Predict the structure.
Amino acid sequence: GSGSILYSIWASRSTKLKDPQHRILGMMSICDVIYSTNSALGFLTYPAGLGVPTFGNNATCSMQGFFIQFGYAAASYNMVLSIYYYLSINRGMKKEEFAKVWEKVMHGIVIISQLSFAITGVSNGLFKPN
């Protein structure tokens, strides 16, 4: 899903990256790829002794927690995409106006908040198994 979306945006980047919808969708897809990859390969980073074949330690477990927490930004970008559609369809806002007034602020809020949550989790030891 998200990989195909990223490929589609990249293949037509000269036109698609001019549109806020595709930039938001691209960031949502990047966050989803981070989350999905981490979830699929997560068992490799579990600390040894948890009853399953594992290869990690507490540091890799914290790293996995960081990236899973940051991957939740995909849901936040879904909200940003919904706001974009609401403003453009219901309020008649032009995409240029959205890009100029709202888009940078919304990207900042999503990235800063999710990075803050992930860093807080790692620094407080919330991603350790014991």
About this structure: The chain has six helices and no strands.
